[in-house]
Structures are given as structure tokens and as C-alpha cells.
Amino acid sequence: MSAALFEMLLRLGDNTLVLGHRVSEWCGKAPVLEEDIALANTALDLIGQTQMWLGYAAEVEGKGRSADDLAMRRDVWDFRNILMLERPNLDFGHTMMRQFLFDAFHRAQLAALAQSSNPRVAEIAAKAVKEATYHLDRSAETVVALGDGTEVSHAKMQTALDLLWPYVGEMFESDDVDAQMAAEGIAPDPDGLRAAWEATVRDTLSEATLTVPQDNFAHKGGRTGARHTEHLGHMLTQMQWLQRAYPDATW
Amino acid sequence: MYAQMIQSTGKGVKTLDEMEPEERAFQERINAGGKIEPKDWMPDGYRKNLIRQIGQHAHSEIVGQLPEGNWITRAPTLERKAILLAKVQDEAGHGLYLYCAAETLGITRDEMFEALHEGRMKYSSIFNYPTLTWADMGAVGWLVDGAAIMNQVPLQRTSYGPYARAMVRICKEESFHQRQGFDIMMKMCNGTDAQKKMAQDALNRMWFPSLMMFGPSDKESVHSEQSMAWKIKMNTNDELRQKFVDQTVPQAQYLGLTIPDETLAWNEEKGGYDFAEPDWNEFFDVLKGNGPCNQERLQTRKDAWEEGAWVREGMLAHAAKKRSMKVAAE
User: How far apart are the C-alpha atoms of B86 and A40, rounded to whole Å?
Assistant: First the structure.
């Protein structure tokens, strides 16, 4: 097995798993019925992508594990999602700002992965990029509307942006895994996605009349598994409860 | 059902001869199987009754997201999570069609939400029961959606056009929901001892509340008589309940589960099962707000609405700015 490919697939699948989980927490509780439906739809897309990424990861690993085993039976230190996505939802503004900052990255990442030298990766990304494009359209529109809306909504979106900004840098971190994937033409080097991401994000945030924070400090440790936030453990206590409590059952 | 205890005029049904020409034409059209459309003349009572009924149905879809939403984050596999998410998203979609159908009668969605939050409009009693184990996701699909289908299939032929058309779309999705519920039950019943126990426990807790969904016997009810004359209610509560029991008992047997009713027995003469009535005192308690989850369900909806106010206001303000910029540019 290729350890680097496995690691990369976990990073992709854990991002969508963890964000999909967070977004699904909104079910039945969104500010508007149409938003409730759209959030459920986004979560559904992300869980679908998770099935594909983790399913392929399990195959690459070749130890007889399934996508469900990877999702439901790993502990915190084995998760490879970026920290931003495991942050609690907080309010709707924070949820949509996080979605936007990630979507802009995700779409660029998937568009590049659709050109992967690995046909399975290319195939999954080609399907997922269509969904990510739609997610980005919607989250960008919401960020603009609420940033520009009322004084209250503007202030809430600025707060969300300020809270999330220290977490965006991790998306563009590179390590040996990324270097190897880039060398093999399997995946883009994340650092190379930054310029296009910045252009999209700065345009939208300016239309939203929001101020981009100056400080580029970045919290890290999610995509390497070195140090997650305290929130991921709590998420796993819910997500993995049944599989952990009834290890012999099939569902 | 999703619409329970809908009060109509309470005056008894007029004969055609007692009606003014307008109302008579309206009733004759219904009798002939015709549809009433939003711009057509209709009696006030018909309009009010339909708003209550469709509104209650819509609220049931929205509040009904909560007991199932309770397990989305704990679904045991990725596939189960995806299916449950899709199902709950469908329920929200049903709410949307139904609110739109009710709006054609001259009420807004916001007014209906307000009435729900203030307790002036209700939702189905069933959603005031808790979902305690994963088997409840099976039981809700199998029993609750199963009961809903009993009522909603005939409502595809209801006299009010927008309601009937909404029901056609809804019924397609509901039968998928029921199948996925039954599929979960099958997996549980073929599973470990703990899973079988969960499945039986879910049936024990959900059986009588499911029977309550149809509402109390309406043999004597003038409300039902009027609603049936208007074809906004197509069958009596007892007919539907009987049909539901007759359909569900063999399914429970197939699953190897025991219906929690010792009096249950096949009655050859009527060609259906005899069964125990649910505890109607409990039903009325739930309607009054004393069900196990009434307070929490309503509070969750109210909080969502109040905490989301800034979002709705922000979006409206932005849309207004965009419109005025467009006007200025022209």
C-alpha cells in the first residue's frame, strides 16, 4: 500500500466527514425552512463524498477495514481533518462563514484532483467538484447577504470571520505526504491553491463589506493528527456511539 | 394522523336545498369529483378548516424533523446517516409544499409559524414522543410514516387542488420512508440480542401512539361529517386505524416482534383484527401539551425562529438594498 496515498485520502475523507457531521447538527433548527433544506443537502453531499474517499482509503490500506470502520472506529489522534471543520457550529453566521472559507478551498482542491494521475481519485473528485461548486455559490451568497444586510448581521459575520481566520492557514500547510502526492501527480500541493483561494475569498468578503483580518497566524495539528481541538473528541462520542457500544452488531 | 381533531363549523352538514346558489354550485362541483382552486369561491368554513388542516400537517412535517434529527449525528453507519439525512430533508420539503398550499388560502407562512409558537396551531401528537434508541428510527419510518400514508393516499383525491397536488408528491416520498424504516427494523430483528431488544422496545413504545395518530373515533362527530362532505377528509378515523392495524400486524409477525396488545385477535367475520384502543386520556394530555416532549419540541422550534431572526432580517435588508440599487441604475 502507499502510506502517503492512504494519508491523503484520510485527509480528504475526514474533512468531509467532520464538516458533514457539524452541518447535519442544524437539522430542524435553521433560521429559515429553505436554509434547513439546503444545509441538510450540503451535509448529505459531504457524507456521500466521505463514503467515496474513506471507501477508497480502506481499499488502499488493504487491511480489510471498510469506510465505516475508518469513520466509526478510529480515535481522535487518527483523524486527519483540519481544525476549522471540527469547531462547533456556534451561530448560523459562523456556520456559513466556515462553510464559505472551506468551500472556496474545497472547490479549488477538487478541481485540481479531478486532473489526478490516479484515476480513482480523479473520478471521485470530478463528481465532488460539482457539489462543491454549488456549495460555494450558496455559501458565498449567504456571506455577502449577511455581511451587507443589517448592522447586527454585519457585526455577527465580522465576528465569525475574526474567529475563523486563525484556522484558514492550515488548509494550505504542506508536508512530506503532500510533496510525494504532488510529485506523483496525484494531488496538488496545497500551498499552490492559496493564491486562487485568496482571490475568491477577498472578492466575496469585500462585497460582503467585511474586513479581512491582518494577522496570518495559523492553528495547526488537525491534518497531521498532532493536536486536534477538544471538540473532536466530543463529536466522536456521538458519531461512534453505536459502533463502540455494540461492536458485534451490523446495522 | 398529521391533522388531528380539526374542528369544522360544528353546525352539521347543510343539504343542497338549504344552500345559497353559490354554495350549492361549490358543493355540487365537489360531489362530482371536481377540484376547488385558490381563486374559486369557497365557504369561509371550508377555507378556515383547510388552513387549520394543511397548516397542522405542515407543522407536523417540521416538528417531525426533530425526533429523527435526534439520531442523525448518531447514525451507526455512513449509509444510514445519509439515508436518514435524505429522509429528514424530505420532511422539510413536505413542510415547504404544504405551507405553500396553505398560503394559497390567504395566510402567510410566518403567520402560521407564529400560531404554532403561540400554541394556536397544533402538530401531530406522535412527535411529542421521544426517540430513545436507533430502533426508533426504524419504528418511526415503519409505523409513523406507515400511518401517515394511510391517511395521505386518499388525500391525493381531496377537493382542494393545491393540497391534492402537494399530496401526490408527498406520498411518493413517504412510501420510500416507510420502506427504509422497515429495512432498519429487519436489520435489527435479524441482529444481536441487544438489537432485537431495541426493536421490541421501540414497538412497545410506539404502537399505541401510532394508533392515536388517527384521532379518536369520529362516529358521532359533526366536524368529521362536514369535512367528509367537503372531501377534505376522505375516510373516518376508525376506518383508517383498522386498515393500519390489518396491514401492520402481519409485518410485525414477519419481523418476529410482538404487538403489545394481548387482546389482539383476527376476527374472521369482519375480515380484520380486533385490537385494544389506545389510552385516550393520554392522547388528550399530549394534545394539551403534557406529552413527554411537547415542551422541548416547541421550545426548539421557537428558539430556532428567534435565534434566526437576525438572519432573516439581514437577508431581507440585503435584498432590499439590491433592489434599490437596481432601480437607481435603471
Answer: 7
Residue type (1 letter), B120: R
Q: Does B181 touch chain A (CB under 8 A)?
A: no
C-alpha B52/C-alpha B4 separation (Å) is 10
Q: pLDDT (tens digit, 9 = 90+) per residue, B39-77?
A: 999 999 999 999 999 999 999 999 999 999 999 999 999
The DSSP bridge partners found for residue B272 are B267
A52 lies in some domain: yes
Q: By the CB < 8 Å criterion, does B197 face chain A?
A: no
Report yes or no on A250 lying in a domain: no
Nearest-Cα distance to chain A for B322, in Å, is: 10
ipTM of this complex prediction, to 2 decimal places: 0.97
**If pLDDT is split at 50, 70 and 90, which confidence band does B220 have?**
low
Candidate from A29, A47, A144 with C-beta closest to B81: A47
Residue numbers in B near A29 (CB within 8 A): 69, 300, 303-304
Confidence class of residue B9 from pLDDT cuts 50, 70 and 90?
A: low
Report the C-alpha gap between A78 and A226 in whole angstroms: 9
What pLDDT does B239 receive?
A: 95
Contacts of A44 in chain B (CB under 8 A): 82, 85-86, 89
Q: Residue B77's closest chain A neighbor by CA?
A: A68
Residue B3, pLDDT above cutoff 80: no
- Per-residue buried b or exposed e for B125-139, using 16+ beta carbons within 10 Å of the residue's own CB: bbbbbebebbbbbbb
Minimum CA–CA partner of A67 in chain B: B78
The alpha-carbon gap from A27 to the nearest alpha carbon of chain B, in Å, equals 6
The answer to whether B133 faces chain A, any CB pair under 8 Å, is: no
Per the CB < 8 Å rule, is B88 touching A40? yes
Residue range A162-182, pLDDT digits in tens: 999 999 999 999 999 999 999
CB distance B308–A31 less than 8 Å? Answer: yes
Residues of the domain holding A233: 3-245
Q: Which of B89, B116, B321 to mutate to test the interface with A (most CBs of A within 10 A)?
A: B89
> CATH number of the domain that A11 lies in?
1.20.1260.10
Report if residue A110 sits inside a domain: yes
Judged by a CB distance cut-off of 8 A, whether residue B79 touches chain A is: yes
pLDDT at B10 > cutoff 70: no
Report DSSP state, residue B119: T
Taking CA atoms, B66 is separated from A27, B92, B214, in Å, by 8, 11, 21
CA distance A160 to A93: 6
The predicted pLDDT at position B1 comes to 56
**Is position A251 within any domain?**
no
Please report the DSSP string for B193-242 in residue order: HHHHHHHHHHHHHHHHHHHHTT-S--TT-HHHHHHHHTTSS-S-HHHHHH
Cβ of A149 and B187 within 8 Å? no
pTM here?
0.96
Whether the CB-CB separation of A76 and A91 falls below 8 Å is answered with no
Contacts of A25 in chain B (CB under 8 A): 72-73
- Overall domain count for chain A: 1
